[in-house]
Amino acid sequence: MAEVKIIADNTKEIEHAIDAAVAKALEAVGIFLEGEAKDELENSPRRIDTGNLRNSITHKVSEDEVIIGTNVDYAIYVHEGTRRMSPNRFLRNAIERNEDQIVKYIENELNNAVK
């Protein structure tokens, strides 16, 4: 039977590379979805009064997630609708319409990390 010797333990380097790839993928997804959500509002048949909501959409990356959103207080009413206004789910639509692209961003970065 052949003898196996471990010369170096690269576990820490691999973990670091994977963590960096995840962070890079999440940032790419955030930038992409931020643009898609803005496009969703821009191309909506509903009118845009000031562009304040569209311009306020941003993203934030944390350790293991990316958050796409806005700090405009009326955004929830636009997104979910009211009794007098149908919903314009610009965030949800941007995510659901691009699920395959989101997966590709993550797969590409992870594949590049382990090469």
Give descriptors for this structure.
115 residues, mainly alpha, two-stranded antiparallel sheet, 2 strands, 7% strand
Radius of gyration: 20 Å
Question: What does the oligomeric state look like here?
Answer: single chain
Q: Helical percent range?
A: 55-70%
Spatial order of strands in the largest sheet? 1-2
Series of H and E elements:
HHEEHHH
- Content-based structural category: mainly alpha
Outline type: elongated
The N- to C-terminal Cα distance equals 30 Å
Strand content: 5-15%
Count of individual helical segments: 5
Contiguous low-pLDDT stretches (5 residues minimum) are none
The overall average pLDDT, rounded, is: 90
Query: Could you tell me the number of beta strands?
Result: 2
Largest sheet: 2 strands, antiparallel
Short recap of the structure:
This protein is mainly α and 115 residues long. The chain is built from 5 helices and 2 strands.
SSE layout and pairings?
Elements: H1 11-42, H2 52-56, E1 58-61, E2 66-69, H3 75-80, H4 90-97, H5 99-113
Antiparallel strand pairs: 1-2
Describe the structure.
The chain has 115 residues and is mostly helical. Helices cover 57% and strands 7% of the residues. It contains five helices and two strands, in the order ααββααα. It has helices at residues 11-42, 52-56, 75-80, 90-97, 99-113, and strands spanning 58-61, 66-69. It has a two-stranded antiparallel ribbon with strand order 1-2. The two termini are 30 Å apart. The model has no long low-confidence stretch (mean pLDDT 90).
